[in-house]
Amino acid sequence: MPVAITTRWLAIARRHPSAWLLGAQLIAVLLYPALDDTAGGRAALGMFGMAVLGLALWVVQRSPLGTWLALLLAIPSVVFSLAGALLDRSALLTTAQLLESLLYFYTAGALIAYMLQDHKVTRDELFAAGATFTLLAWAFAFAFAVCQQWYPGSFQGTGGGAQRTWMELLYLSFSLLSGVGLSDVVPLHPQARALVMLEQFSGVMYVALVVSRLVGLTMLRRM
């Protein structure tokens, strides 16, 4: 009986990898506030982040774009992240964040290509729509983190200080991508404002081109 249950769950996982990626990212949103304040918590988040990277690579396999570029970004990202944490070198961590940003952008693009490759809307593609949104939010949050390392004081928040926390940057990213604009973090440096404008544009175009297409195809299937 346990073997049958395990086999069933593995089959579901293979059919809906985007759901696992989306679920992992939403769980991470809940974990960050509780674990980001301690060294042990940050280490746990780092391990969880690597698991999310693994899920991202798994999801990319279903895309027509392939996995070789994702691997070229993911492997150095993990190496730089571990080296930066062990050696306490901010430059290494910044490099890891840059690579992670590029990886999440690539994975989001791969999922969009996966959703656009045919005129059928599967359940996994609906999960992919949500996963793509969170991937873009993560990608821009990492880009913001790199920006504030390269240009100190890029973002100003209510907490004071020159550097914003990861949770603040992720909150800003979700606010911009969703179009609600409720963040209390403000971009000050021109480079930061350029990134913010790119994310605002990406959020509008994602809804206009990708989500609307999925909704339209779903409605046509039911007619």
UniProtKB/TrEMBL annotation:
Pfam family, one: Ion_trans_2
Gene3D superfamilies, per database record: 1.10.287.70
TM annotation in the entry: 18-35, 41-60, 67-87, 93-114, 126-151, 201-220
SUPFAM superfamilies associated with the record: Voltage-gated potassium channels
Keyword Cytoplasm found: no
Domain Potassium channel intervals: 137-215
UniProt keyword terms in alphabetical order: Ion channel, Ion transport, Membrane, Transmembrane, Transmembrane helix, Transport
GO biological-process terms attached to the record: monoatomic ion transmembrane transport
Protein's UniProt name: Two pore domain potassium channel family protein
Annotated source species: Stenotrophomonas maltophilia (Pseudomonas maltophilia)
